[in-house]
């Protein structure tokens, strides 16, 4: 679907210096952030994460157990490092009632839809409402329109999504896990919004 | 800890363990007490002269050892200690028993490529080991090992088939299938115990994620109904009913071979009949071979057979399947296959009954 080429690709661009988790400089700040991914199955949730983690693949980092939980450290300008611990959730309707177990205590929620499918956009709005009702108050929410490379099949306009995001105090971005467009931006923008 | 300098530590650990059972109120408070004690001991150990030059790893393993020690000592007070826990454990285990009869991976959206019996069995075995251990860390390791096996399968398949890298959309459904397959002992109590007594600073990130997944699998299974399986309400109830009948039959079967009466030479028989590992020894015996002691055994077998027949007839009646027709179909099969075949027939009959 969203992701091309085989996995894992150990030769992808190496920016190993970003993984400075054990940095001990006294003025540096190390944040650990729980981020939960919500969205219909097939919108490419896991592809986005794998892109993010693989794009900066550190060959010396410990191999993680699997693709549904991944962590990646991002170094910001001011010598702060942010370690994202990314919790994927099952997007099928039958598992929707289990989501609160996952977003409990999360600092960030990324709600993903597929720009070629209005149904997934509707589902995204459902998740936003759920989060507003039940998640930790002050949770940072991002609305992500994935599969932006398939613009000829676009069925959800950027304007509609942006308007919806603005009305709900969310940050909005369109990404393509396939071409890696905006993937890093997404996480950098989230990092900027952290308290 | 054997050194005299550690006497103060030993004393506080002992007094904690001894006083613990006398101030029990509920599991949540007990959990808090253990967590506070572990945190307090961690600080004490870090400041203790004996550990003055210890590395982070050495202190860490001291705390791990302490957790294991106290939880092993307090196990009977802290694990599945209330009758409510025991009840929930039984309920979920019975529900899983029924679900095992008819839930298929397709009901839970598991793609065909990931339906791999061998790895699922391997993963299920890890979950079944959970009661071999008393320490929260060891129990948690069983859960992690199970998840690791599932993830290895996902990774392998994604790499070899160029399938989209698998995330939670694939992982959770497989974990649910594996949990149903394993029917892990005291699932509710084990999850509760790990959550309450595993040192909280160790119950984070990846470990916390996979524990959450098993909790979520348990929650899903507890609440399973027709709509969560995309099944017709009536089909779901029929399946549950059939599963109940089938498990009643299994429960009522004698666990081993019927013992022959002691003393004296065994009865002369040409052939024993075996059904599912149970021996029915009198099939070809002649009346003159029988001794008085055999009557007791014969009567027992007779009761068994009648009970089973009654249940099977009841099952068939509910399905409106004609008994003779079914027997005719079965006629050609070997004895040891009979049960399996009946099950299949019943399932088919159940399905066709639903479409009428």
Automatic annotation (TrEMBL), chain A:
InterPro entries: P-loop_NTPase (IPR027417), Small_GTP-bd (IPR005225), Small_GTPase (IPR001806). SUPFAM superfamilies: P-loop containing nucleoside triphosphate hydrolases. SMART domains: RAB (SM00175), RAS (SM00173), RHO (SM00174). Keywords: Nucleotide-binding. It comes from the Eukaryota. GO terms for molecular function: GTP binding; GTPase activity. PANTHER family: PTHR47978. This is Uncharacterized protein. The lineage of its organism: Eukaryota, Viridiplantae, Streptophyta, Embryophyta, Tracheophyta.
TrEMBL record, chain B:
It comes from the Eukaryota. One of its GO terms (molecular function) is guanyl-nucleotide exchange factor activity. Residues 86-230 form the VPS9 domain. InterPro entries: DUF5601, VPS9, Vps9-like, VPS9_dom_sf. One of its GO terms (cellular component) is cytosol. Signal peptide: none annotated. GO terms for biological process: vesicle-mediated transport. PANTHER family: RAB GDP/GTP EXCHANGE FACTOR (PTHR23101), VACUOLAR PROTEIN SORTING-ASSOCIATED PROTEIN 9A-LIKE ISOFORM X1 (PTHR23101:SF63). This is VPS9 domain-containing protein. The lineage of its organism: Eukaryota, Viridiplantae, Streptophyta, Embryophyta, Tracheophyta.
